[in-house]
Amino acid sequence: MEEQENGEIKALIKVWFKVLISFIYTYFIVSKLPKGKIRLISLLPVFSVFTILPYSLSTPTTAGLTGFFITWLANFKLILFSFNLGPLTHDLPSKSFFNFILIAAFPIKIKKIGKDPFTPTQKLPLSLPLKVLIYSLIIIAGYFSNYNKSLHPNVLLGVYCCIVYLNLEIVMGVCNKIVGSILGLELSPPFDEPYLSTSLQDFWGRRWNLMVSDVLRYTVYFPVRAFWENHIGKRWAQVVATMAAFVVSGLMHELLFFYITRASPTWEVTCFFLLHGLCLVIEIGLKRGLGFGELHWALAGPLTVGFVMVTGFWLFFPQFVRNKIDVRSLEEVNAVCRFLKGMLP
Questions:
Q1: CB 193 within 8 A of CB 169
Q2: How far apart are CA 340 and CA 255, in angstroms?
Q3: How do residues 101-114 score in pLDDT, each as one tens digit?
Q4: Among 60, 79, 105, where does a domain finish?
């Protein structure tokens, strides 16, 4: 076991060394090329390398986070960079290589001055340390009680919803704290209390994984909408662009699941995002076309979060459970505990 853990650490070091080399090439060579197709074509080797990297990692955490940080977010940021758009062009506090790496490699977004038009109104702030405590208690309870065998399957899936959310929130929140301190800048939060969402539009566009929402907005939604507006009109172009963003999100999640499980895709995750994209389009249509107003948050909140959880039980988590990612993740926690224990005097 110890030999396997050491092998994974070495593999992770090699992966991030390749990431560093790719960013050196991008910063010192590609950035000097004219923006547009020439710069995009010159980045094809980087896109290929970033897509292959998670294959050399064997644990769910290392493969999943590398796939999320690099294969998905970094590649999409570089696509925008090809056209002098996105965070690698506009959000850098300075043009230094070090700042370029920080913005490119981590899921962060520099907070813009002024009020964000997408800021939700309902608030129930939970601090990052409190979320870490809750996450730790859930993991410890699972370790000692073996809840994957003792809990009802539906209750277990509810626990998995909490774990997935808290895991992402904590990892991205820690990145925010560290990178924000290094840059000396205030960064936008990675999530905005998605458990208080009052509609699917609120959940996906304003509260859940805001870094991904922002990247998809600029790489998929806006270009697709702009292209189709001249062909089918603004309203239908928005529908096509919304569905395109959810399709891309679904496919990227399928890729991340493949990195983690190494099992052939079943396309359930893509169906999850297609369903939510379709329901979001219907929701917006009801509000705009038929004049449906907003439901009171006390009713809309449970309906929204309940719909996300139920559809997650149905389509998102089955691959997670079938491939025993929960068991493997607990084994990783144990490995980290052993590593930390070994470092103590």
A1: no
A2: 31
A3: 999 999 988 877 65
A4: 105
Distances from the Cα of 144 to the Cα of 36, 124, 130, 138, 322, angstroms: 55, 30, 21, 10, 22
Domain match, 150 and 263 both: yes
What DSSP string runs through 177-197? HHHHHHHTS-B--S---GGG-
Q: Say how many CA atoms lie within 13 Å of 338 toward its Cβ.
A: 10
Same domain? For 163 and 273 the reply is yes
CA distances from 101 to 104, 108, 128, 181 (A): 5, 11, 25, 15
The span from the CA of 312 to the CA of 220, in Å, is: 24
pLDDT tens-digit series, residues 20-44? 999 999 999 999 999 999 999 999 9
- Based on its alpha-carbon atoms, the radius of gyration of the chain, rounded to whole angstroms, reads 21
pLDDT over 90, % of the chain? 54
Domain range for residue 271?
Answer: 112-345
Total number of domains constituting the chain:
2
